[in-house]
Amino acid sequence: MRTDLAGISLKNPLIAASGTFGFGQEFGEYFDPGILGAIATKGLTLEPRMGNRGRRIHETPAGMMNSIGLQNPSVAVFIAEELPRMRSYGTEIIANVGGAGIEDYEEAIELLEATDISIIELNISCPNVKEGGMAFGIRCSSARRIVRAIRRCCTKKLMVKLSPNAENIVDMAYTCAEEGADALSLVNTFNALAIDIENRRPVFNNVTAGLSGPAIKPIALRMVYEVAKAVDLPVVGIGGISNWKDAVEYIMAGATAVQVGTANFVDPLTMPKIIEGMQLYMKREGIQNLSEIRGIIGGNHG
Amino acid sequence: MENKGYREFPVISNEAVVENIYRMDLGGDFIAEPGQFFMLRSKGAGPLLSRPLSICDISQGYLTFLYAVVGEGTAILSRKRPGDAVQLLGPLGNSYKVKSERKTALIGGGIGIAPLLYIAKTAEIKPDIYLGFRDAPFFEKEFEAYAGKLQIATETGGVGYRGFVTDIRNWDDYDELFACGPMPMLKALSRKVVDCELYLSLEAHMACGIGACLGCAVETVHGMKRVCKDGPIFSAKELIL
Ligand SMILES: Cc1cc2nc3c(=O)[nH]c(=O)nc-3n(C[C@H](O)[C@H](O)[C@H](O)COP(=O)(O)OP(=O)(O)OC[C@H]3O[C@@H](n4cnc5c(N)ncnc54)[C@H](O)[C@@H]3O)c2cc1C
Ligand SMILES: Cc1cc2nc3c(=O)[nH]c(=O)nc-3n(C[C@H](O)[C@H](O)[C@H](O)COP(=O)(O)O)c2cc1C
Ligand code: FES
Known about the structure:
The structure holds two protein chains of two kinds. Chain A is α/β, with parallel strands linked by helices. Chain A is built from ten helices and 16 strands. Chain B is mainly β. Chain B folds into two domains: about 5-90, Elongation Factor Tu (Ef-tu), domain 3, CATH 2.40.30.10; about 105-205, 3-Layer(aba) Sandwich (Rossmann fold). Chain B contains three helices and 16 strands. Chain B has helices at about 70-80, 115-120, 185-190, and strands spanning about 5-20, 20-25, 35-40, 50-55, 55-60, 60-70, 85-90, 105-110, 130-135, 150-155, 160, 175-180, 195-200, 215-220, 225, 235. The longest helix of chain B has 10 residues, at about 185-190. Chains A and B meet through β5, β6 and α9 of A and loops of B. FE2/S2 (inorganic) cluster binds next to loops of chain B.
């Protein structure tokens, strides 16, 4: 299942999604993280962030909303304390970077430039921080500014993580491609609302929060399909993947690799089960390489 | 038990002890520390996320949960019959031990009494136990064998002390207190207790239960901590409630 992602060779196309796998340690109690294609770190920012106060999790039918607010120890602490341990897993580490303003992103990238990490995932799509975050991921003009600035200082592979809340996801993908992104990952969470009717107020202090899980899969899959068809960059599919069948759907829609998020919470062994399921599926179908089915649903089915 | 993710256990019995409060016994050889919890789910249709429940008791060959039916997940649980299975992840979280050299009281409010039984049962010496209920007490008899002194409070005054369990007495002549119950009760207790070590078992909405999602974070003087992994038990001195 070896997969080439923008020139980086992954053991397989299964990547743990940012913010759902910590820095890998907790899952190490359940399986060897070294079997994964890659791990995307919790969203890192230049300064440490304590995250949001109040409720952070709300369950919805077939999904969940979160308002964590990018709680993280900072890029510098990540490099000093978490990265060495993550390196010992023997899998690719993808640094997921968030920020408030362009300068914060730039400085964070500069610190990561000095490490042996080969892929940066630029999060311009977090709906849970007031400043920046998703703001960059809604309009093409703001996305263009940040991707251009980061491309200038980033010699690593640059994967831009798109928001499903973008005005037009395909235009957004074109914009990132034009500005020199090496890969795209999508989607982040959908901006959503829940109301506590007993107390007549929003469930979350920030009012809105990000929806993820099986509930978003068909929409996310459609977006991945449209983007993969439109741009000539590897696309990493994310959204509601819970089992190997979901993962295969994303590959057939054109994804080079996939990320698993919320499903890691539902069962810590989700990812090993997906890898095993895909292997069995490939064997049964006589598939040597996933490229045989990648994007196989093609363009028009009129 | 080795850490192999969710495992299935058979329901031995699942009965209401009073209206809306159930006791469920699951068969298996369980090894866990007092104060820990499990994430529970049932196979097949049902909510996406699991539900955290404290260990109420562990006996030879079975584990006991005591739970209140408050929503969809616990309603599904309450309909399980003997022979059905539920899936458990755990034991999870930190633990609490009553030590012989410390004069200790356990204080529970409502369904918050659940973890106190196994804590009392595994104590080095019998702690005093104070249980508070809104109206009718439940499950209080189970504590008798393991309590030094056992005192009940009800808000309606039907049984025992009339009022909140936290107001039963001045707590400062204990060396140590362990409390579990609704947040207003825990807050009231933290305000009243001046001169003894107070440990609180907290609840938080959880997605993973294993420390990965940061959904269950609470603010402490040492920064944000995870109720599922760093807790559920915290020293009141550490918490910013
Ligand atoms: C460490 C820990 C130990 C617990 N031990 C017990 C116990 O021994 N007995 C018992 O009756 N209850 C216990 N609870 C509370 C129990 O988890 C909730 O009552 C239960 O999750 C409610 O689920 P529901 O689907 O019935 O309710 P709903 O309100 O429909 O649940 C909706 C969502 O909110 C979450 N939720 C709702 N109430 C709570 C709550 N109080 N705490 C955390 N999450 C909540 C649910 O897990 C679910 O994700 C414990 C909670 C924690 C954190
Ligand atoms: C609790 C939680 C925290 C998340 N934190 C981040 C984050 O820090 N950075 C990021 O780029 N995405 C973050 N995400 C988004 C996920 O990486 C993923 O894009 C999204 O959840 C959709 O995938 P899923 O349906 O498989 O969960 C988070 C998601 C959840 C549920
Ligand atoms: S419930 Fe996920 S970190 Fe505690």
